[in-house]
Amino acid sequence: MTLRAPAKLNLCLYLGRPRDDGLHELHSLFCPLTLSDRIVVRDAERDEVVCAEVEDPNIVEGALAGLRARGWGHEPVRVEIEKRIPVAAGLGGGSADAAAVLRLAREEVGEVANLAAELGADVPSQIDPAFALVGGAGEVVEPLPPPEHFAVVLVPHETGLSTAQVYAEADRLGLGRDAAELDSIAAELRRAAGRGHSPLAYRELLVNDLAEAALSLRPEIGGALQALRSAGAEVALVAGSGPTAFGIFEDIAAADAAAGRLAPRFAGAIVAGPDPEP
Predict the structure, then answer these.
(1) What are phi and psi of 78, to 5 degrees?
(2) CA 135 to CA 258: how far, in whole Å?
(3) What is the secondary structure of 96-113 as a DSSP string?
(4) What CA–CA distance (Å, rounded) separates 262 from 255?
(5) Domain 2-272 - what CATH class?
(6) What are phi and psi of 45, to 5 degrees?
(7) What is the pLDDT of residues 156-196, one digit of tens each?
(8) H-assigned helices in 78-153
(9) Helix (H, G, I), strand (E, B), or coil: what is residue 214?
(10) CA-based Rg of the chain, rounded to a whole angstrom?
(11) Pairing mode, if any, of strands 151-155 and 270-272?
(12) Adjacent-strand bridge partners of 79
């Protein structure tokens, strides 16, 4: 069986204060992208996850172990992951892979949603990847109408950035909004994105509160953001916890042209659009 695991793009990310459990409340618009990992699942003598680009442990191993612990009785499987989503790039690639494997068993295992939340904050939204307003620490997923077409140019960094480090830096910097402000922002996002328009129609809401922390750890991200603006991006942001920078364009043609202008300095730029598949 061959599975797709689409990347997740945070079109915005509003950060709350740390909770008692150490996690952070947030509100974000999650958009699955056409950029995706390819996963092949085969019968095997024992459960095994093979992914050359990811060092052990792989979150997919945790997904398989969690399914077995909850009674998944399928024969052992070998999961081969072909990475197309850059690793530790703020694009949810590992979470997407784990969610794709969880989809295999959700008809047989009744606690898949709980397992997804245990695996990571980005996993619940990717069980059924779709445009959504996400809250809580990532476990509250509110589907929204698909947006009108737009395109993005992603500029990944040569080395990834630890999400935990970025959140720790955000805490050190004193970043985070109070609960009342987050609730007000969520209402604005729901109203604006709920109309199905391109995110460029509500660009003033496209903010990433983690950007300051990511830039503190990797100042060179600023160069990628400036290059995207110079190449014609209507909005340029840090993707999730970084270090990927991305620019939003009206359509694929504009994004392709911008990617050409970014070369050769950013020859690894990736052009993508919102994933049309449910």
Answers:
(1) -110, 120
(2) 32
(3) HHHHHHHHHHTTT-TTHH
(4) 11
(5) alpha beta
(6) -80, -25
(7) 998 999 999 999 999 999 999 999 999 999 999 999 999 99
(8) 93-105, 112-119
(9) helix
(10) 18
(11) antiparallel
(12) 41, 49
pLDDT in tens, 53-97: 888 789 999 999 999 999 999 999 999 999 999 999 999 999 999
Backbone angles phi, psi at 102, to 5 degrees: -60, -35
CB atoms closer than 10 angstroms to residue 2: 9
The total number of residues shown for the chain amounts to 278
Residues with catalytic annotation? 8, 122
Q: Residues 264, 268, 274, 278: what is their CA dihedral angle, to the nearest 10 degrees?
A: 160
* Contact assessment for residue 28 and residue 139, using Cβ atoms and an 8 Å cutoff: no
Maximum CA extent, the chain? 54
Residue 39 contacts residue 81 (beta carbons within 8 Å): yes
pTM above 0.90, yes or no: yes
Q: Pull the structure tokens for residue 45.
A: 């003598």
Which amino acid type is present at position 11?
A: L
Spatial contact of 143 and 126, defined as CB atoms under 8 Å apart: no
Q: Can you read off the two tokens belonging to residue 25?
A: 């409340």
